[in-house]
Amino acid sequence: MPAKKRSSKQPAPYKDIDQELGDTFKKLRLALNKTQDDIAAPLGISTQQYQKNEAGVTKWTLERLYTLADYFNKDARELLPPPQSARGFEETTDDFIGAGSDAAAISEIVAMFSRIQSKSTRRKIIELLNELVEG
């Protein structure tokens, strides 16, 4: 039986991170009227490689992230997209705990919600909760 080939595809929940980073760096680059050549040079990579990074075709490395954070005079954390678990969820546990709710139960609900990968399912849950609160 032939060995299984490892897939080079990224795990589904994080497939958009490289694209989001590329979009962020493109906006920063254009705001400074820089070319892709200008950005590729301090990274020590070819313009073609930078183009692939910016387009989200290839993965960003931490080294490149930190190099560009320094280049654009930003904290690297500011450049990262929010974690998948936080997307589409506007309230924090602290918001609920302040209302006198059971902290352990709220933490468990937030943890379960963070494991839902489907954006449409998350939206439906939020819509349902909004209806319950308003209705």
Architecture overview:
The protein is mainly alpha-helical and 135 residues long. The protein folds into 2 domains: 13-79, lambda repressor-like DNA-binding domains (434 Repressor (Amino-terminal Domain)); 84-134, no CATH class. Helix content is 58%, strand content 0%. The chain has 8 helices and no strands. The chain has helices spanning 17-31, 36-43, 47-54, 62-71, 76-79, 93-97, 103-114, 119-134. Helix 2 crosses helix 3 (47-54). The longest helix is centred in the C-terminal third of the chain and has 16 residues, at 119-134. The chain starts with 16 loop residues before the first helix and ends with a helix.
Please outline the helices and strands.
Elements: H1 17-31, H2 36-43, H3 47-54, H4 62-71, H5 76-79, H6 93-97, H7 103-114, H8 119-134
Helix pairs in contact: 2-3
